[in-house]
Amino acid sequence: MSTSPQSVSRRSFGRLAAVAAAATVGGLTLGACSGRSGSASPDAPLRVMAINHVWSQAIAGRVAEFEERIGRGVSISMLTSDQLSNSYNVKLNASATDVDVMMVRALQEQLLFATNGWLADLTDRVSDAAFDWADFQEAPRRRSTTAGRVLSVPVVTERPALYYRRDLLADFGGPPGTLDELMELSLELANRGDDFFGFVGRGQRSGAVSQWSSFLYSFGGDFTAEGRSTIATPEAIAAYEYYGRLLERTGPPGATNMSLEQAMPIFAQGKAAFYVDADAIYTNFLDPAVSTVQDTVGFAPFPAGPAGSRPHNIPSWSLAVNEFSLLRDDAWEFIRWASSPEMVAALQADGIPGARQSAWSDTETLAAFPAELAETMRISAENGIGHDRPEVLQVGRARDIVGRPLVAGILGEPVAAVAREADAEFADFLVRDNRHRES
């Protein structure tokens, strides 16, 4: 991912090769602050602000056809995650009009942006029969709605996958179908004296929460229920204890410091039997430049716990319209085009998982993925839960609180007492968070 903002205007630059050579722009420059008043110049480009991601790169390569449709140029600024967040904070606080289409994380930012009045209401627009809102998977579709209003349209989805070593499981009948089997096999295959681990996964306090969520759901728990903390219920404590025991007894040393960047290479370098993380990162294990397991890696659905297999299925990135945009109609047309059945099918056939069920039901769109992974993704997309973190305004703070018992479990400390302390802290946090939401 580039560390500097990139701007792409197809009218000016021609073909896809120009994307890489696009001029650097000042992504944090404050735009005009005229709110919703006034009108845009006929020559003004439609401005799209996006994460530098394979999806936005693919869209930039196709945007010339959209420019011809609306008779207006399109400028796409691609930034890192931190740059994008900082830019939104500066621009939207100032009611800037120089952003029209916004690439957002529905689970991380939408509630806060909605509370601040930064997102245009798309409810009537998605209700157009030709758009076919019902074609979007239920879990991502529900996450696009805040306080009864549709505020974003999902374009990229993500689920967990169980990555495993096929060569090591040949004598065990294949990958584990339950969490009990995952524990048994991880203990059986671990040889930590020789730096080989049964299981590797994220253990960092905040960063581990999203992947741990599928363990929580599969034990029958959740982060909240009816607005109240549920992280000290018997189901949540059992999920904390299980995950902690899995990493403590079969995982690598220093697991509590591991985020994606630290955990993933351990599996890629052939030093672990199992790994649970996002299905979107699968290419790391097929690339011989970074992986030694490209010929032996397998893909399986998330194992079933006491409540069954309940992985998350989330909209990792969505498109929204800036409430202060002077080109809201053109911004919506961009979203219609970029999230159309034809576009989603084309991008998914290139390996970018979308949110439309019609694409997931078309075997041709899944041909870009390894067959075992495609089936894993399809199963999780059908039964997935639509969130992988607490649904609150201050997501980062909530993850930090919820992650405390995770760390205790990985360190082999008693989990229940820490979970009760975290539960009390989270309960207080939820009261304050709701007050901010209502103010």
Cα distance spanning the termini: 37 Å
Q: What would you call the shape?
A: globular
Report the structural category: alpha+beta
Number of domains: 2
Task: Give the name of the CATH superfamily of the largest domain.
Answer: Periplasmic binding protein-like II
How much of the residues is beta strand, in percent?
5-15%
Instruction: Describe the sheet with the most strands.
Output: 6 strands, mixed
Radius of gyration: 22 Å
Helix share, percent: 25-40%
What oligomerization state is this entry in? single chain
Mean pLDDT: 90
CATH class group of the largest domain: Alpha Beta
- Low-confidence stretches are 1-35
CATH topology of the largest domain: D-Maltodextrin-Binding Protein, domain 2
Protein name: Sugar ABC transporter substrate-binding protein
Describe the structure.
β5 (145-146) and β6 (149-150) form a beta hairpin. This protein starts with 5 loop residues before the first strand and ends with a helix. It is of the alpha+beta class and 439 residues long. 40% of the residues lie in helices and 14% in strands. The strands form 4 sheets. A 6-stranded mixed β-sheet has the order 1-3-2-4-14-7. It has a 4-stranded mixed β-sheet with strand order 9-12-8-13, sandwiched between helices. The protein is built from 19 helices and 14 strands. The protein folds into 2 domains: 6-157 and 315-383, Periplasmic binding protein-like II (D-Maltodextrin-Binding Protein, domain 2, 3-Layer(aba) Sandwich); 160-311 and 392-438, Periplasmic binding protein-like II (D-Maltodextrin-Binding Protein, domain 2), CATH 3.40.190.10. This is Sugar ABC transporter substrate-binding protein.
